Queue: 3 jobs
Job 1
Amino acid sequence: RKEGQVYYSDGCMLEGYYGTDKCIRCPVGAICPGGNRLWPVAGYWTPSEKTVPTQCTPASACPGYQNVPKCSAGYTNDYCADCAENYFRQSMYCLSCLDDSQSQ
């Protein structure tokens, strides 16, 4: 839980667990602040805080919980699986087309 934030929930109120009817242990790749919320840790992505996060490839494409689904610079779309505009894929990484250091 982030310092100073207050939540209301009718779900599981135990930190490290999530759920509405029963408390389920937080899965790998998530932070569960209580209630029915799962926040992805760095290296994981989820379309919403109510969906179990999935590991990203590469892990550096996904910065973790940012209040909304978000990708690292150069990555876009679900699971940060695609390269953003002005980026190209080399192996599993998205590199900038504008970065001259990549051509040497």
Note: The chain has a mean pLDDT of 85.
Job 2
Amino acid sequence: SSGINAEYGSDECNEQCTEHVIQNTGLSVVAWVIGTLAILLNLAAVIATAVQISRETSLIKFVNQILVLLISVGDLCVGVYLMTISIVDYDYKYKTTHHEYCHKRYDWLTSGGCVALGVLSTFGAQLSLFGMTLLSVFRGYC
């Protein structure tokens, strides 16, 4: 007998458990910084680009600005994802009892919030990539 009793998950969530939403403190800091910058700078880009689009008379410049807007919205979505996941990580690390994330990990991973964040991050990354691809093709041909 090895002395391991996994029936209640007690061995996985013992006092040495260091499970967190974001495992590394350095990654957590980077997520906060990039998330904050992505939200602020892309909000500014979305507003500035929307203003430019409303004043544009040239079709080529109009399409160019729409594609830049797509990229900014996609990157904004990724920034919102990073900030939200950082807030969830902070809540589990500092606002809950010791090792609580370890016990609630599967509840979080299967929750609607986690799923929505996964959709948001994937949507944002794909929208940005799609916009960059179209912008490259558009600029190459126009």
Note: The radius of gyration is 21 Å.
Job 3
Amino acid sequence: RVRGYVSCIAGCPYEGAVDPERVAEVTAKLLELGCYEVSLGDTVGVGTPGHTHKVMQALQAQGVPIECIAVHFHDTYGQALANILTALQWGVAVVDSSVAGLGGGPYAAGASGNVACEYVAYMLLGFCIESGVGLVL
């Protein structure tokens, strides 16, 4: 099984703003090529809930099944949890994260680390959504 990835869904360090329709087109193509799931990454961390909403609308308009979508948000401007919540409201059920927010995009100047899995697990706990993470409070 192959999982596809679309990086820089909100902004690109080389090309600037990214059109949600283009994200949807590339995502649909990856699924057509046989990927079982596509992770949409805000690699630079410039995404906002409004942009995430527009991406989800574009996916729906393109006929992309939401159950084939995962999300991966960086927390450069503190928007990762809000972006994840927006994706969850559209039915996304798979979220990439990392322990303590480690990692990041070394090729994207200024991009901070990934969203911390403990922050995601805590937010999900607040919505009574089972994450499988053993969070000790």
Note: The mean pLDDT is 92.
